[in-house]
Task: structure prediction
Amino acid sequence: MDPSERSVYLTFDDGPIPESTPFLLETLRRYGVKATFFVVGENVQKHPDLFRQIIEDGHQVGNHTYHHLGSFKHWAATYLIDTFKCQQMIGLPTPYRPTPQPLPCREGSEMPLQAATPQAERVSTPLPPRATGVFRAATDVAAAPQRGANPSFATEESGEAPLLLHACCAPCSSAIVEWMLAHGLRPTIFYYNPNIFPREEYEIRKQESKRHAESLGLQWIDGDYDHEQWQHDICGLEHEPERGRRCEQCFTLRLIASARKAQELNLTWFTTTLASSRWKSIEQITRAGQAAEAAVPGTHFWAQNWRKGGLYERRNQLLREYNFYNQQYCGCEFSMRKEP
Result:
């Protein structure tokens, strides 16, 4: 945009709706003017002819979320999913993959979503089709997942199917990994948990996770520990209760990092051991995984409930067999508080 140019850029939000969009289009057509319409996904679904007319008249369209959500009034995962739902509805590619950087915390509100920056990388490649290997994960032991039931995995020459498993700790990983290996899956363990406090506690849990993976000959990857950045990212949510908005924000941050690691390793599928804990919300974890899948092109989240089918009981058996360190709180300093 040339600042010396005498131009006006017109934008219209919240449509298309029959009460105003036809009048706007007719007026713009009469004067030969082009504009940008930031559309709401559900309105596009209700009035597809009006949306088609906007495109045919040569106007630009932008994403105004699917349900007209406000970013500071909803959980991060909810807002991301809603935004990408609109993105798919209007046929635009995934817009940005932001460069991680600290963002200011608004006092009295949750951490704002990571916004696109001038350094953000444009992503124009459409999502590739799901892998179509010969192996389909069995779900006879664990309960059927809430989303992505019986996902197809591409197999390697060994006959095993690779995927990335985000691991919160060794005890929660043990029965899940055992089940995966018994069903032809070979997980790469990604230990990324910057929420854990203090650092000494983090190191103990990390070494136990590494010991477990190495005992099975599995690849184990250490994610960066940056607790200060994590505190920044959940700023404003410190006083939320367990299973509140802070937890979902934390899940989303960790699973987006996991999806990025999966993408880096050319792995299509990722899942998490977070869903094995009876203290965590399966619904929150699923939303966080879906948000991560939407944010990282070419990845798919396997939303499995790892508590069912005897896996939780097997976890406790393996805890004793491996003599794992068994933590007494979730991880962050806020989960150490006794709830009233």
User: Anything to note?
Assistant: The first strand starts at residue 11 and ends at 13. Residues 94-149 have pLDDT under 50 and may be disordered.
